[in-house]
From TrEMBL:
(3S)-3-hydroxy-3-methylglutaryl-CoA binds at D31, Y145, K244, N277. One of its GO terms (biological process) is acetyl-CoA metabolic process. Gene3D superfamilies: 3.40.47.10. It comes from the Bacteria. This is Hydroxymethylglutaryl-CoA synthase. The active site is at E81, C113, H235. GO terms for molecular function: hydroxymethylglutaryl-CoA synthase activity. Residues 253-339 form the Hydroxymethylglutaryl-coenzyme A synthase C-terminal domain. Belongs to the thiolase-like superfamily. HMG-CoA synthase family. InterPro entries: HMG_CoA_synt_C_dom (IPR013746), HMG_CoA_synth_N (IPR013528), HMG_CoA_synthase_prok (IPR011554), Thiolase-like (IPR016039). Residues 4-167 form the Hydroxymethylglutaryl-coenzyme A synthase N-terminal domain. Keywords: Transferase.
Amino acid sequence: MNVKVGIDRIGFYTPKWYVDMAKLARARNEDPNKYLIGIGQRKQAVIPNSQDAVTMAANAADQIIDDDNRQKIDLILFGTESGIDNSKSAAIYLQHLLKLPNTVQSVELKQACYAMTAGVQLAKDHVLAHADSQVLVIGADIARYGLHTPGEPTQGGGAMAVIISANPAILSIEEGSAHYVADIMDFWRPLYETQALVDGKYSSQQYIDFFQRTFTQYQKQTNLKISELQAIVFHLPYTKMGLKALRAILSKTSEIHANQLLREFEYSRMFNREVGNLYTGSLYLSLLSLLINSESLNAGQKIGLFSYGSGAEGEFYVTTVQPNFKDALNIPIITKILSQREELEIPVYEKMFASQMPLTNTDFETDYQADDAKFYLSGQKNQQRQYRSR
């Protein structure tokens, strides 16, 4: 790769409400440590009916779009499994909300939690072919399994937005990646279902298998030594899942390096522990968490990324840290989003969870007055979603 291409900017958004996982565990007659340690979660984002994949994407992307890059963006790739229309792309709504040029190509991508990574790789190739362009890549989702279900403690939601460009300020993407796909039924959501169906233990086994396959394949393709990686970040449907996968390869390196990878992993899951499952954006929230919280990342170091989407598709690729990368991160904004949220007591959380706009043709008004986000969904009128901005 003659020209460096990679992540130039990163944005993140999650709504301002959360539920405490220890309290949720007690309300479900479970030992709190089952949630806090067993799955590795402290808090879980609660999504109001005034937010959906489109508005959360807009709130994340708004952080990284300004007069310097607005006219350079010529492609939007929107990864989601929480699409709001079977025909019209969420990227079209997003283009309008962000006031991006009408010449921008806008496409929605779907393959469970893998779709944002597909967008990143497609964006990289696009920039290599059009060096002056920039691509906005989105991962936005609401993870819903239902109240009182086994999947309830792995819910959450939010959005990640990245700008892929030449000469990136944060991370360059190394040439090549390792890919694996198989038709399996570990997690799926038929058209008639509003909540996912999942075979949890089987999915966890497949996740680890796909990681080992793609990591080994990448090593064979590139002659990468595990010792060359400063850190490995994972798609984190719950944070203990990434730890299980990491432990599966630690025997391939020295004890000193294994401990280093474990330390960096703890930094990489700090934000995910506070938010829960982002589906398509989960890997990139983990990456952002590492970039902001790690005490030992330096320019030139390599970070491995493992992306997994049930059904199933996996990919492993490597990025390189760029000089002064922290200057390009919106650390005060990210800190504010996570630190100024409001805790919901369990009955209030359950009421908000059940208040989602129904999938019917009737008019509906959301509780948008309580939502102070810049972009929000006010409801549905004449079978059309009503998006607004402040």
